[in-house]
Sequence to fold (257 residues):
Amino acid sequence: MGEILQKKYNTGLVLSGGGTRGFAHLGALKALHENNIEPDIIVGVSAGSIVGAFYADGKDADLALKALTSKKLLGFLEPMVPKNGLLKMAGFVKTLNQTLTAKSFEELKISLRIYAVNINTAEFTRFDAGELIPAIVASSSIPVVFPPVCIRDQYYLDGGLINNFPVEELHGICETLIGINVNPIGELKQINSIREVAERSFHIFIRNQATSKERLCDLYIEPAGLERYGLLSISKAREIFDIGYAETLRVLEGRAR
Fold:
């Protein structure tokens, strides 16, 4: 008989992008932790990279929620003179520097991979070594809304441009692969503005990306109800967190039956 290859990691976790819907990731992580499910490696894109970094740094979900809804963080919503983005990221960067203990990937307690898009080469690029915060900011820089991030003379934007739910990056190397996608489509009764049309179009595009990847996950979590929230609904953070928490508990309870 052929040799059975041992998986490299026990539990892998993939966290999708989704703007402030990413607060649902924190709620999901709290529910997983309460059920003694801890990842050995985390992959994150955009909002998933932020949450993944906080968790890999040893910050619990409630502490991360508090940090990411602080008044200091709201500074990143300050408008800027339109050149390569509409809003500043300064408050966001300051919050990361003040809150994250680790400043490099090597200092994290859990292995972390972050993905962004190199807009010079149009490549989906992995960051898993060296400086942590520039990688998080690059992966989270929604095109047009935020400016590109320069890292080693190359410019990067939100990883969701190419792959918002990169489950395949961990497929086959984990005993258990958990995927959390915070972009359900659902049904919207009304769409009242150009911004809502743009956001809805974006979410339809990235949700269609994710559809074929559900089957790669041993545990798949997609909290219904998040379609009501926009990309920058920071004032609704606790509601979004609670939706992620409740849905994850529901999925785990169903799995236990």
Observations:
- The radius of gyration is 17 Å.
